[in-house]
Amino acid sequence: MLELRLVQGSILKKVLEAIKDLVNDANFDCSATGFSLQAMDSSHVALVALLLRSEGFEHYRCDRNLSMGMSLTNMAKMLKCAGNDDIVTIKADDGSDTITFMFESPTQDKIADFEMKLMDIDSEHLGIPEAEYEAIVRMPSSEFARICKDLGTIGDTVVISVTKEGVKFSTRGDIGTANIVCRQNTSIDKPEEATIIEMQEPVTLTFALRYMNSFAKATPLATQVTISLSSELPVVVEYKIAEMGYVRYYLAPKIEE
Amino acid sequence: GKLQGSMFGFYEKY
Q1: Which of A7, A17, A75, A117 is most open to solvent, judged by the fewest CB atoms within 10 Å of its CB?
Q2: Using CB atoms within 10 A of its CB, is residue A112 exposed (0-12), middle (13-18) or buried (19+)?
């Protein structure tokens, strides 16, 4: 028996919008720790890891570990039917091939339930060890989204380089080139507008912008994004979900031929 | 030129 009640149901709506374009089908794992997912895109270039910790739910009952295969497209369709202020409850019985999403309006005058078919999915889990990153950039998520969108109109790839001067995003396309430098800005009055660069070593890596723009769909989840870079490692783009967990995207860099 | 890396080139399945 599984029963998870989330008063701030809009978080789940935003999570689905943040991952459904990258991954079509995925197994959601439910355990005492929380509600989680790890999935790769179909070309195995990018990976998304989601964690919603059990403590973040108003009610969390998960009698045994469960892995439930879902079409993220269909799950997003169902969650779109929930109001932004609705309380969302996820329910599943042991051995059932369906999951139920219940939406309650804040005043309890409207209650809806949507039952969705589960599916069998063969998924490949990767072990991602904790790593020390050479550079960690924290910046406003909206700024990062804007940069990826702008550069995506000019080129297909972005070169991200972190030096003592700041973080530089560069691209090159048929019409020309673009460079955007963001300097450290430890805005004390407005921490959500700060850009903070922790650098052990200068690092330069190249990534496909298409994926970065897909990651930026998580922008409504967090005011800040953390970008962790090391040469020879996938970049980690993390959006923290307040009090609950995170959505992390891993993207393999472009490598020399 | 650069080639697109794959997650399997960096992390192991378990």
Answers
A1: A117
A2: middle
DSSP string, A76-134: HHHHTTS-TT-EEEEEE-TT-SEEEEEEE-TTSS-EEEEEEE--------EE------S
Cβ contact (<8 Å) for B8 and A208? no
Is pLDDT at A188 greater than 80 in this prediction?
no
pLDDT bin (cut points 50, 70, 90) of residue A222 is: very high
Report CB contact under 8 Å: B13, A234: no
Give the closest of A252, A256, A257 to B10, CB-based.
A252
Nearest to A255 by CA among A237, A231, A239, A238: A231
pLDDT for residue A72 is more than 90: yes
Lowest mean pLDDT among A121-125, A128-132, A170-174, A199-203: A121-125
Angstrom distance (rounded) from CA A244 to CA A196 = 23
Cβ atoms of A25 and A69 within 8 Å: the answer is: yes
Residue A249's nearest CA partner among A227, A222, A231 is: A227
Quick one: pLDDT at residue A91?
97
Q: What is the DSSP string of B1-14?
A: -EEE--GGGTSEE-
Q: Which residues, at least 6 apart from A8, have a Cβ–Cβ distance to it below 8 Å?
A: none
Give the list of residues 6+ apart from residue A17 with CB closer than 8 angstroms, or none: A76, A217, A220
- Helix/strand/coil for A52: strand
Q: What is the pLDDT of residue A202?
A: 97
